[in-house]
Amino acid sequence: MQPLLWDTCAAIWIYEKARLAQAALDLLAAAHRDGVSSYVSPITAWEVGMLTSRGRLQLLIKPERWFANLFDVPGVKMAEMSPELLIASSYLPGRSPKDPTDRIIAATARELGATLITRDRALLEYGMQGHIAVVEC
Questions:
Q1: Which of 131, 62, 46, 52 is nearest to 97 (CA)?
Q2: What DSSP letter does each residue of 6-23 carry, written as one string?
Q3: Sheet containing strand 133-136, strands side by side
Q4: Total Cβ atoms within 10 A of residue 110
Q5: Is pTM beyond 0.70 here?
Q6: Which class for 86: exposed (0-12), middle (13-18), buried (19 or more C-beta within 10 A)?
């Protein structure tokens, strides 16, 4: 089984115990059962901060603490965001997403060989092109 990468929307919904698609729930359960790592990109910290500052995400704790709490979940690790990864995000194959954060997430999934859990339409479409593995949450 490939490692998993949680897109920002998936990280929010998983952490907040929101309703997820059955395929995503099954994949998360299998990863947990088999000891397969799940990753969260550092760009998710920035996105959570932006969503909170714009009033699009309401948290009961500071975004910094919320993000840090993600790594209290067994098997969840921080993905690397190296300069090489950021450069790779600028020349993804195919019709890649236009949003820079989506490009970084896609490049991270490619680097890790991970299945991306997301509901983001641009990333799902990119996965349908065959450039990354995706599961809709």
A1: 131
A2: E-HHHHHHHHTT----HH
A3: 76-78, 38-40, 4-6, 115-118, 133-136
A4: 19
A5: yes
A6: middle
Q: What is the pLDDT of residues 85-106, one digit of tens each?
A: 999 999 999 999 999 999 999 9
Summarised one tens digit per residue, pLDDT across range 41-97 is 999 999 999 999 999 999 999 999 999 999 999 999 999 999 999 999 999 999 999
Residues in Cβ contact with 81 at an 8 Å cutoff, skipping those fewer than 6 apart: 41, 42, 43, 104, 108
Q: How far is the CA of 95 from the CAs of 43, 44, 60, 108, in angstroms?
A: 21, 22, 38, 17
User: Hey, what long-range contacts does 133-136 have (CB within 8 A, 24 or more apart)?
Assistant: 133/2, 133/109, 134/109, 135/21, 135/23, 135/24, 135/27, 136/21, 136/23, 136/24
